[in-house]
Amino acid sequence: MDTLQLDSAQLAVFQHDSRFDYDRELVGGSQNLLEWLTTVISEWIEETFDVLVDNDVVYYSLIALGALLVLFIAWLVWKKNPKLFMRKEDEGLDYDVQEDTIYGVDFETGIREALSRQDYRQAVRLLYLQTLKQLSDANHIDWQPSKTPSQYVREYGNKAFAELSSHFVRVRYGNFEATEELFQEMKELQRSIVQSPEEKGGEP
User: Fold this and answer.
1) Phi/psi zone of residue 177: left (φ > 0), alpha (ψ -120 to 50 degrees), beta?
2) DSSP letter string over the chain?
3) 127: exposed, middle or buried (C-beta count within 10 Å: 0-12, 13-18, 19+)?
4) ∠ CA 108-114-119, rounded to 5°
5) Which of 203, 187, 185, 204 is nearest to 195 (CA)?
6) Could you identify which of 48, 137, 189, 194 might form a hypothetical disulfide with 164, taking C-beta atoms 3.0 to 4.6 angstroms apart as the criterion?
7) CB 124 within 8 A of CB 168
């Protein structure tokens, strides 16, 4: 007597053919977005390339691609603004000033021109750099292009200089408004630093 034999290869084809997935209508509502996307991509690959794809492979591939996308976005953000990933210390005094220099700059002329056009932000910047130049010339600090304001404050523990540095950082990097009154206050602080450089009050 002839007996029916199961064609396992043909059964596998039927199991992976979405046309015979009759349970999909019943369980489809319980799928999350990633599972649904996995199913759609698997079906598209099978229909387009006539290749059977394991859903688990597609599922974990999507997770890996998502992780790579997140890392890529984080890298773009870091490239655009690396300060977002830096730890702030000393009440916001750790900021990068590598683009500033104290050499080859006519500070007096630059400050005068900035004040004439009421560009107090630029005047504050130049006044601070001028102060660094004066302290460097007097060997009170070791100026380096990679150093931050807080490093200079720790190096030269003068209270007036700490206050001057705080004003500079808030205007330069904290988007605080620079006014004529603030500039004059910083000018007085600079004068007291230059006149009495030996007076140090330790770290603020």
Assistant:
1) beta
2) -------HHHHHHHHH-GGG-TTHHHHGGG--HHHHHHHHHHHHHHHHH-----HHHHHHHHHHHHHHHHHHHHHHHHHH-GGGGSPP-GGGT----TT--SSS--HHHHHHHHHHTT-HHHHHHHHHHHHHHHHHHTTSS---TT--HHHHHHHS--HHHHHHHHHHHHHHTS-PPP-HHHHHHHHHHHHHHHH-TT------
3) buried
4) 150
5) 187
6) 189
7) yes
Residue 136 one-letter amino acid: S
Locus of tokens 């999350």: 32
Identity at 108, one-letter amino acid code: E
